[in-house]
Amino acid sequence: MHAIIMAGGKGKRLLPLTEDRPKGLIPVGGSPILDIIIRQLTTAGFSRVTLCVSHFGDMIRRRFSAASFPGATLDFSVDRVALGTAAPLRWVERWDTPALVMNGDVLTTLDFRHLYEEHARGGALLTVAAQRHEVPVDLGVLQIAGGRVRGLWEKPRLGLDVSSGIYVVSPGARERLDDDVTDMTDLILRLVEHGDPVTAYEFGGEWHDIGTPDRYEHAEREFTAHPERYLGPKRVAGRVRREALPVAAPGAWPRQAETRFDVALIASWAR
Questions:
Q1: Would you list the DSSP string of 153-189?
Q2: Whole-prediction pTM
Q3: Could you tell me if residue 169 is inside a domain?
């Protein structure tokens, strides 16, 4: 199994922590976050890990070129400039089977192997690992139809399916990559627009995006308190959502408010 880690971002939201190093080398529990991710992947059975690097890429290459991860080989794909979270896939060599693709700033207890196997069984071009998040709205939300108020929800909590920054991508998806497609958000929408199969893999468990100082500090506390959750053999599996769901174009939210939205919120992870 092959995994590709996007580790080329500038980490602007993490300044000043990323002033003199890439965010992939930010320590979590004493080890760089990339070290933790690679250990998780190799434990899950991934035999090849490709690091897509750009900003401070030489630092990452020096750190991991001599690193040893039993049962796995590491290689690098180098971009002269940061290309986003999807464009680097165009330049990954020897990619002819599905690959797990993930951001290099994610700490999670997700079962990577189960996600990969579910994608392989389903036949989609891309599978998104998604989590259900509740977003509180501290206002009264109206249901309006035909100019009349049909209902009102006082301070509802909206359930949103959020992209975790973790995917499995089949090589055929590269056909949708061009100069206009730079991030995974763009690639997913391009696939959907062309009718290509994209599935959602829903999972619970722990998931932390360490893209901001507050989120980083929270992830650091959680990992330090429970390292076995992240590095132990037991992982949290999810399930592929099989039923078809309507897709909303960016900004095209429904007029009718509901207490639960089945709308995929595709997060655009800042690089």
A1: EES-EEEEEEEEEEEEE-GGGGGG-STT--SHHHHHH
A2: 0.82
A3: yes
Q: What is the pLDDT of residues 59-103, one digit of tens each?
A: 998 888 878 788 888 999 998 777 788 889 988 999 999 999 999
Q: CA neighbours within 13 Å on the CB side: how many for 236?
A: 17
Pick from 33, 27, 31, 77: nearest CA to 51: 77
Query: Alpha-carbon distance 98 to 69, whole Å?
Result: 21
Question: For the chain, how many structural domains are there in total?
Answer: 1
**Number of CB atoms found within 10 A of residue 72's CB:** 18
Alpha-helical segments (H) within 8-108:
33-43, 57-65
**Is 270 a member of any domain?**
no
pLDDT at 52 over 90: yes
Q: What is the pLDDT of residue 51?
A: 95
Mean pLDDT of the 169-178 span: 90
d(CA 199, CA 208): 22
- Integer Cα distance of 225 and 69 in angstroms: 24
CATH number of the CATH domain containing 156: 3.90.550.10
Report pLDDT digits (tens) over 14-35. 788 778 888 889 999 889 999 9
- Domain membership flag for residue 109: yes
Residue 18 in any domain: the answer is yes
Tokens 């090589």 locate to: 171
Encoded tokens for 80 = 């002269």
Task: Quickly list H helices, the chain.
Answer: 33-43, 57-65, 112-122, 184-193, 213-225, 227-231
Return the axis-axis angle of helices 57-65 and 33-43, rounded to nearest 10°.
Answer: 50
User: What is the band of 255 on the pLDDT scale with cuts at 50, 70, 90?
Assistant: very low
